[in-house]
Specification:
The complex is a heterodimer of chains A (about 130) and B (about 210).
Chain A (H helix, E strand, L loop, with lengths): L1 H15 L7 H24 L5 H22 L11 H30 L3 H6 L2
Chain B lengths: L6 H4 L18 H26 L9 H4 L2 H26 L3 H31 L8 H34 L3 H34 L1
Helix pairs in contact in B: 2-6, 2-7, 4-5, 4-7, 5-6, 6-7
The chains are: A mainly alpha (about 130), B mainly alpha (about 210).
């Protein structure tokens, strides 16, 4: 009896803990979007269609961000409701950490690099 | 079992946590696994940061333009993308309790994964053969660390995939196996998300530079 109620409870839980049951159309939509969002950046870089390298770089980075969001929604089934919002909370915390670490490292090291004394000047200093 | 005093009855605040009611087995597994993935995400973020800092230091050695073959990277990317969708099909057939089809889709996913790893190892071997070893320059050290760590994750995912296929073959689609397949699904799709960062920032931006 106890086991029965347990199993029933587990089964109920499986349905309402926010793991939306994945659907064929959801996966296919995600897949088609990913293919398009992957193909365009490769094509842009390999053909060199855009006038400047900087514009191309910005555009392919934008495509990467969009594709990551597409994967999160259609493949990883992220939604603000999953696990009562705790998955989203962990994700937001991670994104904040990643942004601080990445931008901080690049910024600091770039400054360090540009303020470093060039080698030929150092050889003159005895 | 529960000894909490109801505050509305006594008007006194309660300063301790009442015993939690028992949860079914595996109740918190997917959240816990998600938190593991987030910590894994931090590892990759640090490796991306290292690559971002060191990626332009060629030490007069080969640059990305000399080394990377974008056609090969495109093929590799499609292998991983296809393995993502076939894993999705495995999850769909699992929901419908079709064991044979689930196993078939898992096997196809594994084959795409093996193809991905083989292409990557071929690329690495080719680079090392040309003298572009991890010791050559800071760019190559950070490149091999970042892409190699991703490849190692995919290899571990493949071992896990085979283990789960044996589990499903022996015990069927029991609740525990469904939970495990769910975790591997998250792991596999997460690696595909990391690969988006790799092909954009390492390969495409590298060739542009």
């Amino acid at each position: 009896m106890n086991i029965d109620t347990h199993a029933a409870h587990a089964h109920d839980h499986h349905h309402d803990d926010g793991h939306a049951h994945s659907t064929f159309s959801g996966y296919m939509l995600g897949f088609v979007l990913s293919v398009v969002l992957t193909a365009i950046p490769f094509w842009l870089v390999m053909s060199g269609t855009l006038p400047s390298k900087q514009i191309t770089a910005l555009v392919i980075m934008a495509f990467a961000v969009v594709q990551i969001v597409v994967h999160m929604i259609y493949f990883l089934h992220m939604s603000p409701k999953s696990e009562n919002g705790w998955s989203m909370m962990a994700l937001i915390f991670t994104i904040v950490m990643v942004v601080i670490a990445l931008s901080g490292s690049l910024w600091v090291m770039n400054h360090l690099n540009s303020n470093m004394m060039p080698i030929h000047e150092m050889t003159g200093m005895k | 079992m529960t000894v909490a005093v109801n505050p509305s009855q006594t008007g006194e605040p309660v300063f301790y946590v009442a015993d939690e009611h028992p949860h079914p087995e595996g109740y918190s597994t997917s959240l816990g696994f998600w938190i593991y993935l987030m910590s894994d995400c931090l590892i990759f973020a640090m490796l991306f940061a290292a690559f971002g800092v060191l990626g332009a230091n060629y030490a007069a050695g080969p640059a990305p333009k000399d080394l990377f073959d974008l056609n090969l990277v495109a093929v590799n990317t499609s292998m991983l993308l296809l393995s993502s969708i076939t894993y999705g099909f495995a999850m769909l057939t699992m929901q419908q309790n079709k064991i044979a089809q689930t196993q078939m889709w898992l096997a196809i996913t594994g084959l795409f994964g093996v193809a991905f790893i083989s292409i990557e190892l071929t690329e690495f071997a080719h680079m090392i053969h040309e003298g572009a070893t991890p010791q050559r320059s800071a760019f190559l050290s950070s490149f091999f660390t970042l892409v190699g760590t991703h490849g190692l994750h995919v290899s571990c995912g493949l071992i896990w995939l085979v283990t789960l296929m044996v589990q499903v073959w022996r015990f069927g689609l029991i609740e525990a196996n469904r939970r495990r397949l769910m975790c591997l699904s998250m792991f596999w799709h997460f690696l595909d998300v990391v690969w988006i960062g790799v092909f954009t920032f390492v390969y495409l931006l590298g060739v542009l530079r």
